[in-house]
Design brief:
This protein has about 120 residues and is mainly β. It has one helix and eight strands. Strand 1 and strand 2 form a beta hairpin.
């Protein structure tokens, strides 16, 4: 049997909230977009005003010229089975800036970011 569980990413201007999808889990990973601090909380702490998107998982974070970015897997494909467990291939990703804008960057810095993303 393959998992159909999809966690959700909730976004506010100050924080990312990533839900656990295990059955009965109430844990939510909170990433502060200003301090970069990561903590655990419960679902009740997700603000109703947060923008919600389904995700397949978190790939990680990356530091670029403009600051930190969160990389989330937005689409996956089942490629097999290993000892009764599904094996997935990450197919699509979103790269989301912790910062709300890149207006503080020079044209050269923006060019470096574009170059870095093209090589990922």
């Amino acid at each position: 049997m393959f998992s159909t569980c999809f966690p959700h990413r909730h976004t506010t201007p100050e924080k990312f909230f990533i839900e656990a999808c295990d059955e009965g889990a109430d844990a939510v990973l909170v990433i502060d977009r200003v301090s970069n601090e990561m903590t655990l909380t419960g679902r009740q702490d997700i603000p109703p005003s947060a923008v919600t998107r389904p995700i397949c998982g978190i790939m990680g974070t990356i530091r670029l010229v403009a600051g930190m970015y969160l990389i989330v897997i937005t689409r996956k494909r089942n490629v097999g089975n290993l000892l009764g467990h599904a094996v997935w291939k990450a197919v699509d990703f979103d790269v989301i800036s912790y910062k709300k804008t890149v207006l503080h960057l020079s044209e050269i810095q923006v060019g470096k970011i574009v170059q870095t993303f093209c090589t990922l």
